[in-house]
């Protein structure tokens, strides 16, 4: 249906009355199939959603249940792995703030070229946040990104 609407001229980047794009709506309702269909239509994967302040990638990384395949798919289709959201957070910063014991997103983002040195609006890098939170496992992975390489085999 989404492909049909796009073929008939629907704007795949148009926000609804609440500021959500079709891609963010698909992710909000956890419809991974629809999200991938929308990504295939080549929307602006680096636009800031006015409702959330997120890029599609920072939104996806925050919602860790999406899994690494969707993260990898979005980056391979043009999402900037270093694009900041309205808080100045990159996908890497969002990933370390939302790890919840799962390092898959972190692995994909790091291995797809995330810049460790980017600071958010609070002047903090991903490493600063990991050190503040005393997350020894995340600190290990940030210092040894090769331990996360297998996440690219998805």
From TrEMBL:
InterPro entries according to UniProt: Ankyrin_rpt, Ankyrin_rpt-contain_sf
Presence of the UniProt keyword Repeat in the record: yes
Keywords from the named record: ANK repeat, Repeat
Source organism superkingdom: Bacteria
Keyword Repeat among UniProt keywords: yes
Mapped ANK repeat ranges: 87-121
Transmembrane segments: none
Gene3D superfamilies, per database record: Ankyrin repeat-containing domain
Pfam families for this protein: Ank_2 (PF12796)
Name of protein: Uncharacterized protein
Annotated organism of origin: Brachyspira hampsonii
